[in-house]
Amino acid sequence: MKKRLLLVFLALMLLIPSAYGETAEENDVLLYLSFDEGQGAVIQDQSGHLEDANIQYQYLAPAYTDPMDPQWREIGVKGGSLLFEGASTYVAYAPEDICLSGNALTISVWVAPRAFEWDDPNAAPSGIAHLTTIIGQYYKPEYQGILLGYQRFGRLCFEVGTGDDWFTLWTDEGRLQRNAWNHIAAVFDGDEGRMNLYLNGENAATTRVFPDSVIEPAVREMLLIGKNGYGEQIAAGNYQMFSGLMDELCLYDTALSEEEIAALADKAPGEIPYEEIGLENILTGDVFKTQYHGGPYQHWMNEPHAPVYYNGMYHLFFQSNSIGTYWRNICWGHLVSEDTVHWRQIQDAIVPMENSVVPDGVWSGGAALDKNGVPILFFTAGNDSYRSIGLISNQNIGAAYPADLNDPELTEWIVCDELAIAQQPGQGKAGEFRDSHIWKEGDDWYMLICSGTEAGGGTALLYVTDRLEVLPDGTIDMDWQYKGPIFEMENQSVVYGTSWELPILLPLTNKAGTITRYAFFITPAPASIADNKVYYFLGDFDKETGKFTPDADFALPKLVDYGGNVFTGPSVLLDPVTGKVDVFSIMQDQRPGPEQAAAGWAHSIGLTRNIFLNDEGTSVCIVPDERVYHLLDQELLSLENVTMDEANQALEAVSGDLLYIKAVLEPQDQQNFGLTCKAQGRRNYTSFTYYTAKGTMDGFTSNRAKDAKASVVEGEVPLKDGKLTMEIFIDRSLVEGYFNSDKAISVRSYADFAAQQIKLFADGEVQVDELKVYTVSSIYQ
Question: What are phi and psi of 412, to 5 degrees?
């Protein structure tokens, strides 16, 4: 008889999915998600207790032609997995279908977080931490339900409400690892009066609860997987949403033993290739997202910076939030290219790290080659606990160098244990100390840092070192000496800000090589009060005194791009391949937060540009880099020496949203003339107009974003030999115009997809010397 019962028991155990554990009974399982569906937006409870649930996934904005499936992956701990992109992906079950309660609960799950969210460093000790949620169903005011998640640096937390109390359990040492599989188990055992957190099969934290405690059900709350039901919200989305891979989620209404949990964690999941967990290029169907401009594939970016060329590869870094479309969780994203045109995103180079110089954000900076040609990144190290370690600012300058110089992509970077430069009293405005720019002249390296003056204006601080070398012991030999503010404007207007972000100083030469002047670029900040365009001065730089003196014509700075705050946040590279000065910038999308969140992306980088002096050495010219023209594909139109009517008749057959247009126009009188594009009817268009009497060019769009500061922008562009050459690059919502190889105007235009008409216009007679239109290839093909 005993033998027969044993055989029946063993037969039943064979029917139970192995994910439930070696000794757990099938009826102990409340919910089991295997994440093996691989397609569609429906997920199945493999325990059979609950109906299929819909996966919430928000890339369904009007900009898309078709809805997209959630991001399923074939790689998982067992079978496949699901990538939660961090901004919209989650699973929800109604409380009437499942409501967690009782004297025992175990949660078992495998996760591979892609990033860790920022939170106030004092939040956890104060009991007000905001958890990035793995799974939760809770209502804290009435001490109901449970919440499992993590906070800064992957520190795990398990919370339970028992009706009379709210119990919180943090791991002290255990931390989740980014971009790698971690097994988590959370156990509540009311009978024994304990809570436990296990990480990769090891007990990571324990706390006591009152004996005979039970989980008080949160009867009005959804069971949410990947979303915090009471997380922080902003216009651009929700904070505290899980970002990364998830697999094998199982809930038990029993308290599993350490042995059972060890068995669940006793797997050897393989390494996760970056392509499986990184941001995917899935937004190509968005009629507004650029296709031949670089940038991250999804989410938020800010200034591209620290360009450096090493071993045949260009590297460009940028402020990145890989969780959502908003400013937060700032890391250094990393783009690589062999030609500064075809950019490819790889894993983040530098991220905030616990017990480091950069715990709270990695903001903009620069790059340099040391005496041996080794790249060094100088970044703004955010530290919100700066006062506790004797600093005067949460912004200081850190340094990092490649972990493997033989890696062609320089994927991994080692952050130095000590700051490169810490702001000191008397060195600029305390709390304004960021955005380093580094260059070398002779045997010395120079660094500019954004700051402000005692009088309330902006400035840049200068530092110099005659030593810069990565040593075999992993330290960097450098000795940055403070030289003072490089330049201060007298009686500065608030238009030029209270600090000068992304300061750049470099010598520029005219094409003939006969004139050299120093160009000093600034971006006035903050944008709430300043004109946040990219301004420049020309003048002299005295290396002995460390002072810049503007030329007489530069009592006020000037612009190279007249656009309305689209072209911002520049960085430069003296290109060792071409010998030219490359300029990289962010192209602001200018949309309000909700529109960015719905689209799943915010901003892009501009086309690579070159800067040089005009023939007289009195102005900075800006043009597309020659390699950009390699993207030109099919010739749609080519005309020479025709009338405007003939040109417009030919243009009627031309359309597209990825185009290059070149028009050489010669006015016969003092009239206004120009070109419209992205047009549909009289009220839906983008235009560039030349005012012959004033010698100025303007850009206008009737489809500007709601947050754009101006619909019309204008600046001086002299005719050359009585002609105007316009080069227009249309990349969906982004339009870059270049005029007479002199100045530029960048515009964001959110016209309907059907708005693709191109037309020339004039008040009088204009000769069309040349008109060409090409399609432009996507860099993602």
Answer: -100, 140
Is residue 34 within 8 A of residue 46, CB to CB? The reply is yes
> How many angstroms separate the CA atoms of 118 and 458, rounded?
29
Query: Strand pairing partners for 182?
Result: 111
CB of 531 within 8 A of CB of 524?
yes
Residue with tokens 């900040």: 525
H/E/C letters for each residue in 448-460? EEEEECCCCCEEE
- Please, which residues have CB within 8 angstroms of residue 365's CB and are 6 or more apart in sequence? 305, 306, 317, 377, 378, 379, 380, 397, 434, 435, 436
How crowded is residue 593: how many other Cβ atoms within 10 Å of its Cβ? 17
- Are 593 and 236 in contact by the 8 Å Cβ rule? The answer is yes
Structure tokens at 692: 């012959």
Supply 416's token pair. Answer: 């130095």
Distance CA 460, CA 502 (A): 9
Residue 710: pLDDT band (50, 70, 90) is low
Mean of pLDDT values over 107-131: 94
Tokens 């609960």, located at residue = 105
Neighbour order of strands in the sheet with 712-716: 712-716, 696-701, 686-691, 672-679, 757-762
Comparing CA positions, the residue from 331, 263, 571, 259 lying closest to residue 439 is 571
Long-range residue pairs from 683-688, CB within 8 A, at least 24 positions apart, any chain: 684/751, 684/752, 684/755, 685/751, 685/755, 685/757, 686/735, 686/747, 686/749, 686/751, 687/761, 688/726, 688/728, 688/737, 688/739, 688/745
Give the integer Cα–Cα distance in Å for 561 and 557: 13
Choose the weakest-confidence range: 28-37, 266-275, 502-511, 543-552. Answer: 266-275
Cis peptide bond N-terminal to 526, omega within 30: yes
Q: For residues 299 and 86, is the Cβ–Cβ distance under 8 A? A: yes
Cβ count near 127 (within 10 Å): 8
CB count within 10 Å of CB 475 equals 14
pLDDT in tens, 325-349: 999 999 999 999 999 999 999 999 9
CA gap 627, 299 in Å, rounded: 27
Helices then strands, counting H and E runs in the chain, come out as 6, 54
Number of CB atoms found within 10 A of residue 417's CB: 11
Cα–Cα dist 435/443, whole Å = 23
**CA–CA dist 487, 704 (Å, integer):** 36
* Chain centroid to CA 429: 27
